[in-house]
Structure formats: C-alpha cells, structure tokens
Amino acid sequence: MTNLINDIFLKALLKQPIDRTPIWMMRQAGRYLPEYRQIREQAGSFLNLCTNPELACEVTLQPLARFDFDAAILFSDILTIPDAMGLGLYFVEGEGPKFKHPIKTVADIKALPIPDPEIELKYVTDAVRLIRKNLQGRVPLIGFAGSPWTLATYMVEGGSSKTFQKTKALMYNEPKLMHQMLDKLAQSVASYLNAQIAAGAQAVMLFDTWGGILATEEYKQFSLAYAQQVRSLLNTDIDGTKVPTIFFTKGGGQWLESISNVGFDAVGLDWQTDIAIARERVGNKVALQGNLDPIALYAQPDIIVEKVKTILAKYGYGSGHVFNLGHGILPDVNPEHVKAMVGAVHKYSAQYHLT
Amino acid sequence: MTNLINDIFLKALLKQPIDRTPIWMMRQAGRYLPEYRQIREQAGSFLNLCTNPELACEVTLQPLARFDFDAAILFSDILTIPDAMGLGLYFVEGEGPKFKHPIKTVADIKALPIPDPEIELKYVTDAVRLIRKNLQGRVPLIGFAGSPWTLATYMVEGGSSKTFQKTKALMYNEPKLMHQMLDKLAQSVASYLNAQIAAGAQAVMLFDTWGGILATEEYKQFSLAYAQQVRSLLNTDIDGTKVPTIFFTKGGGQWLESISNVGFDAVGLDWQTDIAIARERVGNKVALQGNLDPIALYAQPDIIVEKVKTILAKYGYGSGHVFNLGHGILPDVNPEHVKAMVGAVHKYSAQYHLT
Q1: What is the pLDDT of residues B179-222, one digit of tens each?
Q2: Which residues contact B253 (CB under 8 A, 6 or more apart)?
Q3: Which of A218, B164, B200, B290 could be a cystine partner for B269, CB 3.0 to 4.6 Å?
Q4: Which residues of chain B does A291 touch, with a Cβ-Cβ cutoff of 8 Å?
Q5: Catalytic site includes residue B66
Q6: For chain A, how far is it from start to end, CA to CA, in angstroms?
Q7: What is the pTM of this model?
Q8: Ranges of H-type helices in chain A
Q9: Phi/psi at B163 (nearest 5 deg)?
C-alpha cells in the first residue's frame, strides 16, 4: 500500500490479514456534526459546498478529527454526473434534489453527452487531490459515484420519487431506450471514477440506492448489468497498487449471490440483511461492508455497543469485514453515539483477527 | 367449501387442485376506479367511507362488476384498531393517516385497551355481514388487519414515517415496553380477525407493511413473533370449513423460510422477490400470493400480458399460487390495464393446472 499510516480499510476490502475491523460511516461528513452545519451555512448551499474543493476538503476531514475512522470519503453528491450532462441540478430545502431539465423524450436521451471529468467535473477531482494532500497518508480516501440505474431514476423522475413511475414506465415500455441511457451512464460513471482514481482516490464505491425497487429480472438487466459494465471499465491498478471496489445496492439482500459475481472486491449490506447469512452466501468471493441499522444510533450508547458486538460476532473470524451503517447516518444523531459505535468496533473486533 | 360459485381462491390458498390461477388485487376497491372516486366524494372523507357499512359494501363490490376477480376484500383500513383503542385516527389530504393521541409514554402503553370488535369495531363486522349477503356466494370475501408491528409503527410515530425513528428508538431502548404493546396489539388483532371470520370473512390476510424496515433479528422478535401469536389465536375452523390465512411482509423476501414456518397457509410476495426462487425456498409449506410490480400497470397492455405470463411460468405447475400485485395498485392506473392483467391470468394460467 502507498505509504499509508493506517491501511486496514484497504486490506479488509481485499481480505488481507489485519489486527482489527476497520470502520467508516456513510455520510460521515454531514449534518449530524455541528462543525459541518457551520461550514454548510457559510457556503450558502449544499451545491456550493460540493463544488468548492477547499470547502469539500474541509468537511471531508471533519469527522476524522472527531472519530477514529479508518477511511475518509470524498464529500460530494451522486448527482454531479447528470448535472455535468446538462440536467441542471438544484436543491429545494426539505424536498431533496431536483433537475431543471429532466429526461422526457427520445431526443433527450440521444443528446446526453458523456462528460469529461477533468473538464465538467474538475471541481471533484480537484477536491480529491486536495483531500489526499491534506490527509497526509493518515487513512485512505474513498471516491464514489451513483450507479447508472440510480442516476437514471433521478434523471427521468426529475428528482426523488416514491414509486419511480416514470422511470419504470420507460423501462417497461421502451427497454431499448432505457438501455441506451444506462450505457451512456455506465461510460460516464466509469470515466468519472477513473478520474477520481487518477486524482488519488484509493478505493471507489458505487452506490445503487434505488436498485432495490426493481423486480429480480429487471434488477439484473437494468441495474446490475450496468454496475458490471462500470466495473469492467475501471482502472484499478495504479502502478501496481490495487484500488479496491465496493458495490452497494440498498434493498439488494435477496440478490447477493448475483451481486458478488460481477467483479467488485466488496459488497455493501443494508441493515435488513443478516451479515452472518450474507457471509455464508457470498463465500470467499467478496468482502462485506456494513451493516448497523442507522436508526440504532438513536439508542443509548450501551445498547449501541451491544448491537456492534452482535454484528462483529455475526461476521465472525478473519478479514473481509468493513464496519459501517446499513445506510447513511441521519442529521439529528448525537455525535457521542457515533463515538460509542466507533469505540466498540475498536475494542471488540480485535478478537476476531487473532492470527 | 360453503356453497361458493367460485372458490378457486380458497382452494389455491390450501393448495387444492383447481383449473386456473385465481387473481385479486391489493387495493382493488380504490381510487383508480372512477366509480370509487364518486362514492368517496359523496362520503366526504375516507373515514366516512370506512365507517359506513353500506358505502363500504358498495365500494367492496365495485371492482367485481368490472373485472373477473376471484375474491372480494373488505373495504377498510389497517388503522381501525388503533382508532378503536382511542388514538383518534384522522387523515390529512396528501399526507396520509395521523393520530391525535400517539403513544408517547409508558402510561400510554399501559392504558391501551383491547377493543371489543363487536362494540368499537361493529361498523366493520356489519360491513362484512352486508358484503357477504350482497356477494351471494359469487366469490369469497377476504377479511384483513394490520400486523401488530405495523400498527405499532403508526401508533408511536403518530402517522407515516420515512425512518421510523421513534418506533425503533423505543424498540432498541425499551424492548420490554415494545413487547408489552405488541402483545396487546396481537390480542386485539386476533380478536378483530376472529370477529370478521365470525361475521363471514372466508379468508383473512395480515398485512405487515413495515416489517421490512427491521434488521433480521428484530424482524423475528418484534414482527414475525407477533404475527405468529395472532395466527395461534385465530379460529380458522368454522363448522368444519377451513378459513385460510395469508401473511404478507413487504420487504420480507430475505426471510421467507422463517415466514413460511409460523402457521399461515399462504405468504404474500412483494414484486422484488422472484416467485420461482420463493417457491423453491418455501417448498410445500405455504401457498404464494403475488407478485407483479404495481408500476408495471403503467406499461402498455401487451407488455402487461407478457409480465403476467412470466410470473405464471415462474410459479409453474400446480395449485398454490394466487395472482396479485406485489403491493397495492396506485390511484392513477388506467382500469383498462387492470383488465389486461386479469384477462392474461385467465387466459394463460390454465396450462399450469392440467391434471
């Protein structure tokens, strides 16, 4: 590994021996931290924060000053790609992301460009370079992107959705068109992740937030196939150092066998999935990342510690487990509760790594 | 069976030989039907409709006049029980159900009564009696209730929720209190379903809409255990005629082996679960109900027909399949698309029942 002071996160993803289980947390740089809320207010908007490399760097590093996390994750948003494609991302307070120009016609799909990440998304790769510099090798930096399917849902719906009616109607009625859009997205996502890797991301994660809304056949054809395409296009060998890859489909617990077969080093688990059963099902093919219920962080610290111990015990002996939540932390969690979780992983995981 | 003209729905639930696959649809009496919207407007509110046996009967029968469904389902709401417990159910247009007096304290839980269904919920059993009379044996009538866990989530949150933060905080921090509440709910639900059966319901379904938000252990302890308690308290033998039982956990696909072991005759499947794999996993223990993606009804009729054929083929030969959606139909679906689905089940299912 590249002169990292702490590389147990990367080693766990590659199932190499380590002396305790690493931990990081989805949305670890976020609103539950008062120091984040302060910078967010100064920035004026979430998008200003994402597009300003100095501020993105600052908030990326904030959780590492508080907690002994074993990885940093680039502060950004999965919707930077559709924005770079010209859809016009904006946020409405309390309503989530929106697009000014959602995909409505065949012409819209045909006209979608594949962004050049070092041009339209240079603010992201600049942030990666700056974060790497400021991390000074303390822990590895994770780059990320949304999966093609997940990006497509936002692009067609024009924002968040409960039912994904427009996206699914397009998929069912015009599968070829949907495949064309997903192919462009897969190329864009791969190019974007490769740019993050070239800029210094030491691991990359693909977030398939909405794959779990699909029926099994459609999941394989419209979500997993394009995650596989992204994976096949990634440059994960940087001067002989491997860049581990993680794929996470929220709600994908039923499909773990298929998910573990498309070439990623690790698979993210939501909290509904039992990690002991998951490990049996995926065998030695992949490492597993997860999977405490994010809402368990509202429990009292002693209960959080018990829940952490249960998950560690369920995964059991050996490398290949990265502790995380099963989804992002919520904005009003008490940071002291996060501290309890991190402390418990440090304290109780070494016993599973005795060599 | 009790002099029914069409009893294939009940026979399918009991895995007895039939000549085609039965079909009904979750929320088949609902807003997608113009004739429903008309009565709903006359009634003034959704609750007025639920609490008026004549109107509830009328809308229950509406879909049967349009489509060849093989069962009627009582028009009602899962939240009638907490309302009967004194929580004060009301609906805010566009926001869903709310309670005036949500559960907030230990005293609130201890004070919860177990309603007498023939007193506080007599409007429901009256509706059941009236619907049975008006059905004249055409198809069986399904009674239903919300599962204890699902009811508890609404009672603690005070309505719908995205994160179920209050309910889960109570569960994690005060598991004994949560168990006390769930035990009262299980008794209330069983008594309510027994009253529906006594009034004439010929099958009953327990809806666990929110079991799928739980981690595996919590699902078993806080949701499935109380579904099992309800099941154990049901009187399902009415003068020698069996009343089949169905349990449906939305998002429960990973737990089918456990779900099929608690005594229900049939298990509902959401659309994410592959019904071929589900049948393999549950073996001969239960019948299966489902599982077309409700959003597939936005596709063109010829595509709907193909999706129906796929599901029928996936279930394969023999009795034990009740065709349904994987969740309720949405309000703006074109009724002609429902007709395409029903017609396809009638046309293409007989081949799987050759004897």
Answers
A1: 999 999 999 999 999 999 999 999 999 999 999 999 999 999 99
A2: A253, A254, B269, B270, B272, B273, B278
A3: B290
A4: 215
A5: no
A6: 21
A7: 0.97
A8: 8-13, 34-43, 46-51, 53-66, 80-82, 106-111, 122-135, 148-157, 165-173, 175-199, 216-218, 225-233, 256-259, 275-282, 301-315, 335-349
A9: -115, -15
